[in-house]
Write a structure and sequence with these properties.
Blueprint (H helix, E strand, L loop, with lengths): L1 E6 L2 E8 L5 H8 L5 E7 L4 H13 L3 E7 L8 H13 L7 E6 L1 H13 L5 E6 L2 H7 L7 E3 L2 E5 L7 E5 H5 L3 H5 L2 H10 L4 H7 L1 H6 L2 H19 L16 H15 L6 H17 L4 H12 L15 H12 L11 E5 L5 E5 L3 H11 L1
Parallel strand pairs: 2-9, 3-4, 3-5, 5-6, 6-9
Antiparallel strand pairs: 1-2, 7-8, 10-11
Helix pairs in contact: 3-4, 8-11, 8-13, 8-14, 12-13, 12-15, 13-14, 13-16
The site of nicotinamide-adenine-dinucleotide (NAD) has 31 residues, from helix 4, helix 5, strand 8 and helix 13.
Amino acid sequence: MKIQYKIDRIDHNIFYKKNIDNSIISEIEKIKSDKKILFIYDGKIQQKIVEQLFRKLKNSGCDVSAYEFKGNKYNKTEKTLFSLINLMMNKKFTKKSLLISLGGGVIGDVSALAASLYYRGVLYFYIPSTMTSIVDSCIGGKTGINYKNIINSIGNYYHANSVFIYHDILKNIPDREYYSGIPEIIKCGLLKKNKIINILLKSKDQIIKRDYKTLESLCTETLKTKIILFKNDIYENGIRLHLNFGHTFAHSFEMATEKLLNKELIRHGEAVGIGMLCEILLSSKKKNKVYNLLEKILKQYSLPTSLHQYDLNISKQKMIDQVYKAIFLDKKKINKLPRYIGLKTIYKPHIKEIENTGEILEVIKKFI
Ligand SMILES: NC(=O)c1ccc[n+]([C@@H]2O[C@H](COP(=O)([O-])OP(=O)(O)OC[C@H]3O[C@@H](n4cnc5c(N)ncnc54)[C@H](O)[C@@H]3O)[C@@H](O)[C@H]2O)c1
């Protein structure tokens, strides 16, 4: 399956393929690159997948250099960014050279930022390797690194020319990196009318078995929904903001746990699931139909619905205070107060400024 969309009149493609085929090689031919490639991959991905892709690139007659790094939050830094820029510089990359990254959201975000900065932009392909990156971060063009303990505080917008989703890779994603992408799928199902919620409710067995046709339909439906929301609002002045549903709280949970525990306790997608519950509760003041639906789907896929399911190993009050502080680092805020996406009814999101700081605390306390 191929999805095509335009940004500023330039074509972008997403391929959903069963096997690692030659689609990437045909696209390299089409973009008229200078055939210099930097191939960046996450060291945790199965060796045989990395080798298969590397061999394909090499056999196509391109001059390919490969570079491995670990895709975790601690590498989403300026140090990694500059190491990628240095590699391109050492290989005498031109604007027509191609950076290809294979990895989850961390590798994707840093690589896209490096691709956008070197000579103000080189060609860029992305092969996502976690569920979060397959259904969310592979499109939309947001790049970023974390700086001064603030998530994505440095970044810009730069869209991969093409994205290649291979079911062969998806089938081998470890369970945690697979299931933690599901909240981003649910998010798109709650924001806009489409087939997503129905598939999630009715096709549990196929999703657990990672059935090709079911996953193709679930992932492409999610990506199409995301495209509708960002395509005409790249810089987030209006409806694209809705895609941040759950993220004001999610980022606070991520930042607070990392700061206090000094480790990556919670995956981004898991935090988004809990964050959406918080934002529904904050906007509706009570558990409503959409809250119950979200909670049911999260539980159906054994995803956390609060921080109670994690081993926090720290005083509850300390964590509450830290999450509360982190909420004020929200990047969507335009005045003094953080903003979030309220959802009182399914398909009817609205951007809201937090009016009553006491109410945030009440919500946080319920989830820690
Ligand atoms: N740009 C965007 O629009 C956007 C959207 C959502 C999330 N993000 C960012 O993405 C990141 C979260 O993404 P993520 O959950 O993919 O994180 P990640 O890239 O850190 O991957 C999670 C873990 O899975 C490992 N991994 C990756 N692929 C694997 C594979 N196939 N097999 C085995 N292990 C594998 C990684 O090494 C890492 O340990 C955050 O930094 C978040 O800010 C960006």
